[in-house]
Structure formats: C-alpha cells, structure tokens
C-alpha cells in the first residue's frame, strides 16, 4: 500500500467524531466493529467545517499499483512549477485521474536521435569521455559545470651536486700566527688540522714542531693526536718550508724517480685507494734521523687541488707487505672508520723460533708502552695499568722445519704498536730477526738465513669506500723468500688463518 501524504491522514483523523462527543453506550461492541466492512466505515458523518475539502477517494477507485507504474516520470510537474503553486491550488488526488494525463506515446519526444541513428554517427563525432562534463549521465540534460583547471604538475627543483670544496694552497707563515679553531675543524687531530690548513706542509715537519713544543693549544703543549675543540687558539710557529709543486707535470728528476718507485711498489690503485707493497727497511713516517719514508714519497702524488695521498694505517720499518693509502679525503675517512670498527681483516706471515703448542690458538693480553733513553718497546701489562691497552691475536702454524722453526700465520684483531712481535715473544716463540723482542738465550740462527725481521703483512681485506671489498695479497720479500727456499717451505701451502671463516 502506498504511503498517503501526512495532510490527508490528518484530515481523516479530524473527520472522525471526537471521543468526548460519543456516549459510552453508543460504541458498538468490539465484535460488531470487526464485522463492519471497509465501505461502511466511510459512512461516518464528516465535520461541517471541512465539507468544502474534497472527500477521500475510495480505495476501490484508486488506480492499482500496476496501473500507476504506467505513468511516466516526466508527467509530473517540475519541482520549480510545483513550488509556485499555493497549497490550496493543489488538486486532489482524485482529480488527477489517469485519463487526463498524456500517455507515453502522446508525450513529445526529445530531439535526440534514436539509438539506431546515434550508432550511425562516426565515432570521431562523439564526444570523448574525458570531454563530458562532470555529472553527465546518458539520457539526462547536460549539467553546466565550470571548467576545471587542472593544476600544473609540481616540478621538483633539481638539486645540483655540491662541488667538493677546493682547499687552496695557503702560503706557509713566516712569523708566529695564532688561529682560532672553527666549527668545521672541531674534533680534528692537531696534525690533521695543520695538514688541512697548510697542504704543502710535510708530515715530518708537523711532527717536529709538535715534538719540540713550538705548536701550542691555548698556551699549552699539545700532542699530534690531541683533538681540537671549537674556539681554541692554536699558536703556529714560523714555517719556512716551500710548498711542494702541484701536479706531476713539473717534477724534477729525483721526484720522477720517486714516483717511479711508488709505481713499482703498487699492488692496487684506483681513484680513491692505493695499496703499496712496502719493502722491509723503508719507514712509513719520518722521525729522528729518517730522511726517506713513504709519507715523504707521497708528496710527488699531489693532485691539482694540492691534496696528497694519506696514510690509513702503519707498518713497522722492518715489516714488509701491504700498506693502505687513501688518495682522497673521502676515502681516508671511510677507511679509517673501517679500521676503527674492526671491519678490516689483516693476515701476517712470520717465521718464529720453535713450534708453538697448541698449533692454533688465541693470545689475549694487555700491552703498555715502556720508553727508555735508547728505545721504546711494548711490555705485557695488567688490566688497569696506566696506558695499558687490550690486544688480541689469533695464530696458526702453517708448516714447520723440524722443531727449530715454524711458519706461523697471524691475524691481529686489535692494532696495537708491535702487537704481533710482543705477543709471539710472550708465548716463547719470538719472530726470527726481531732486534727488540727476540730474547731466547743460546739460540743460533740457521746458516743461510738473514738476520732480518721475518714478518710480512701478507694480505689485507677491507670494504671499499664506494662499495665492494679491497682484497690484496703481497708476495714474500727477498730475504723471507730466501729463507723459505732454504727451509723447504711451500709458500702456496694451505693457510688456516686465511681460510678461516669470519667471526
């Protein structure tokens, strides 16, 4: 049953006699009221005040649901027209009979072409989907929508890669100068501070002025490894050294020989890293009485910006083998961090007195520096001693020569000064030819072997600053190769340390 408007329902209620006007006895019993038909209920007297209102149409006279469904939706007056009529002018439902309404066939059709006609139009004449306005529905009137302006795509500004700052060649001071540590130099070591400020200053000269106390920080003596803080004042003495020539185009004959010597020692080189096969007897850094060392030789490799390659780690003067050098400041920072985080792996070969037992083991001690007037050595210390540092070394016997000599492979976990030499002497098997730590009494060197330190930095493996791994192996130096041949040791023998899995 369709829902009647609320006004008709209100009129029906008002036409019924009020409850107060009917006497109690006049009400028919409930059973009789149920027997009355729907037609008899409509005979109730209507109120005189509302007699002018049209009577309700009997349900039998109303069009059935099926008939009402035949009426077209378009026969109803538009919303705007209905709103203009007053409520009293609204015709009753009974007046709007089906016969008065135009049939679907009588209604004028729109001027749109029929489906068959529309299909005959070429596809190019049809509006594309993207051209239809918003809210468009087939069969409905087009709705005018203001044109929508699509925002232009936001363009991401192109970030140009910042060029690396070029450190100009600052002239060396000819008188005492006092400089203030800037924010960018906060945390730098004293020697790195001077090297960055004066690219032409050699490492040996830096060590000399620091050792003599000519360079002072806030009026106090400083060590080359001390870290500077922002705002500190640094007193720099006169530096009368001439800055070395930049580039390799104007090298002297001696410098060209030095460059050729470095090329002959090169095991690996790229734009960032250089690995040298340092010969035994060549110092890495300068010191008292040292006039030729690797750091000074690297002066001939300065680039166009005045930057020279930097040492990343150290080897003793009598130790031969792989020496890692950074050619750029970026590589120096990355490689130094790899050593600090112990992600670098180093393997050493040594010839020691006797045969260690067990043949594979781990040495863990504390080492402290002990200085004297003549020399400086590392001694075994106790935990908590002043200047004591923990040192760990793994060792494995590769091959023996009877019971007098053994070829040992070593892997240092830490990087203390003279760590391998001090550890092997500590377990009673000092390295052959060691002038500082070989203290075995009544021990004689076998004939034919040279009394030189038999220690080789055999292999280095470290992450490359730009990805990948640097893995370089150095051959036996001449004096060690001679000993291997005399003792019948096979240098290509299986090495337990080299092939050991990473921890």
Report on the architecture of this protein.
The chain is 20% helix and 18% strand. The chain is of the alpha+beta class. The strands form two sheets. Strands 5, 6, 7, 8, 9, 10, 11, 12, 13, 14 and 15 form an eleven-stranded mixed sheet that branches. The protein starts with 5 loop residues before the first helix and ends in a 16-residue tail after the last helix. 20% of the residues are buried.
Keywords:
18% strand, 13 helices, single chain, 503 residues, alpha+beta
Distance between the termini: 86 Å
What is the helical fraction, as a range of percent? 10-25%
Overall average residue pLDDT? 75
Number of strands: 15
The ordered string of helix (H) and strand (E) elements is HHHHHHEHHEEEHEEHEEHEEEEEHEEH
Structural class: alpha+beta
Q: Write down the Rg.
A: 51 Å
Count, helices: 13
Oligomer: single chain
* Residue fraction in strands: 15-25%
The profile of the biggest β sheet is: 11 strands, mixed
Give the overall shape.
extended
Low-confidence stretches: 66-70, 80-84, 91-99, 145-169, 242-248
Summarize the structure.
This protein is of the alpha+beta class and 503 residues long.
